[in-house]
Amino acid sequence: MGKIPWSPIGVQMRIPRLLRTAGAVVTVVVVTACAAQASPDDPAQQVTPIGADVLGSYSADDEQSRRVLQILQGSSRYLAGPWFDETYPAAEADAPVDLGGNKEANVRYPAMTAMTVATALSLDVYDPKDLPVEEATGRVVSLVRALATQHRANSSEPDAWGKQWQSALWAYYGGAAAWMVWDELAEPDRAAVVAMLTSEADVLTSGDDMYLTADANLDRGDREKLFSNGRDGRPVEGGEAGDSKSEENSWSAALLGLNAAMLPEAPGAPGWQERNNELLVAAAARPADLAAQEPLSGIQPSTWLQGSNIDDDGVVRNHQLIHPIYMVAFDQSLYQGAISALGGKCAPKAAQHNIPLVYQALVDRKFDDPASGAQKTIYTPGAPDVFYPEGNDWGSPAGFPFYFGNFDALVSLYGLDGEASVPASEWEALHNEAQLAMQARSTDGRTYLGPLEGPAAENTYKGREQRIGVMAAQTFLSVWMVRKSGGPTVCWE
C-alpha cells in the first residue's frame, strides 16, 4: 500500500492559540490569578487553566506524528462541518444546540465531536479550508454549553442526561473540550461544566472494591461490577464469562483523572484521585495480580483486588469473544498522561499496568484459525490486517485500522512494547497508513463509507466517525505533550 500524500497543514511549527496574541496571554494571566483565589463558594474558579507555557509548541516533524495529525485534521474537519450541519440543521450561532435526549447518540457523539475539534483548535492544527476557525470554535462552544446545561446537575428536564451507564465518559469528553476552550466560555457555562464534572465524579467515588458506584444507574437499574471474574477465577455473581470490565473501568477513571488535573483545589479532588488509581488497577487486573505485593499508585493489589478483567497472558475477553478491539481499549488509560500534564500533574503509573503484556499478546500470541487450520497472531506480520480469533461483532475485520494504529502510537510513545517481538512503531505505520487510505476515499475527512448495518458494514458503531476523531485528538495531544518545545511534561507516579 502506498503512502497517502502528506497535507501541508501542520508541517510548520505549531504554536497554540494561547500564545498567538498578547490578548490571549493576558486572559490566561487573569484567569490564573482568579484560580489562585479559588473558594468553595465559586467552584468554576477552582479550574486550573491550560496556560500557554504548558502547551509550548511542536512541529510534528516525524512520520508517526504526521500520520496521527493528518487523521485528526481530516476527522475534525468532517465533524465540525458536514456532521454538525446534518445533525443540527436548526442550530443558531451563540446558542447551545438541542441534544434531543439523553441516550448515547444524543450525548456521546456531540461530546466526542467537541473534544476532537477543541483539541485541533487549541493546538492550532485545525484545517479551516471548509469552515473558518471562528465558526468551528463557535460550534465547539455550542456543543459544550449544551452538554453542560442539559446535564442533570444543571437541568430538571425529564430528558436531561447524567448518572447513567457510560455517562462518566461523556462528561469526560465534554469537560476536556470545555477546558480547551475555557476562555471562550461565559461564567454561567463554566459553572455548569464544573457542576457536570463534579456530579459524575462523585457518583464514582461512592463505589467500593466490588462495584463501580453505590447506587444503580438511572437508565439500566443495576450496579456495575468492577470485575468479570472473581478471585476464584469464575464469573462474578450475576455476571457471565467473557464480559471484561476493563473498558468501563478505564473510561470511568478518565473522568476522575480529568477532574483531578482540571480541579485540583476542589474539595473532592483527593477522593477523585484515589478512586482513579483504584479503577486503573482494576481495569487491567489479571489473576496473577491477586497475589501481587508491590503497591501500584498507592493501591495494594493483593488485598484490594476482588477479581480480574484480563487473562494472565494479556488477552481480553469481552462480548463473549477473544476481542482484539477491547485489548486496544486501554488507550483510554494511557490518555491520562497528557490530560494530567495539562494540569501540571503526573498521571498514575497504574494507567500503564499490564499494557506491555497486552501488547505482547497482540503481536506474538498465537490462536487457532478454523478457516485455515493454521495458527495466527492477531497482528499480521508486514501487513495492517488484524486477525479476530473468534470473530468481530463490530463489523468488517478491515474496518478498524486506526483503533490499532492509535494504540500502537501510544505504546510506542511510552515505551511499553518491550515484551513484543516487533516494535510498536512498525505496527503504527502499517495500521495508520491503512487508516489514511480509508480517509482518502472521501473529500470531507470522514473515514467510513457504506452502511452501518449488515455484512457490508465496515464499522457498525453509529458514532464511528466521532470515535476516530476523539482517538486521534487524544493521541496527538499525547504526542504533543511528550515532544513539545521545552521538553516533555508527561510523567507517571
How would you describe this structure to a colleague?
There is one protein chain. The protein is an all-alpha fold and 493 residues long. The chain has one domain (52-483): Glycosyltransferase (Alpha/alpha barrel). 46% of the residues lie in helices and 3% in strands. The protein contains 18 helices and 6 strands. A hairpin with a 2-residue loop joins strand 3 and strand 4 (321-322). The radius of gyration is 21 Å and the shape is globular. The two termini are 41 Å apart.
How many beta-strand runs? 6
CATH architecture: Alpha/alpha barrel
Largest sheet: 2 strands, antiparallel
- For the record, what CATH class applies? Mainly Alpha
Low-confidence stretches: 1-13, 19-39
Net shape? globular
Whole-number total of structural domains: 1
The fold-level CATH name is: Glycosyltransferase
The neighbouring-strand order within the major sheet is 1-2
Secondary-structure-based class equals mainly alpha
Radius of gyration, taken over Cα atoms and rounded to an integer in Å:
21 Å
The arrangement of helices and strands along the chain is HHHHHHHHEHHHEEEHHHHEEHHH
Which range best describes the helical content: under 10%, 10-25%, 25-40%, 40-55%, 55-70% or over 70%? 40-55%
Strand content: under 5%
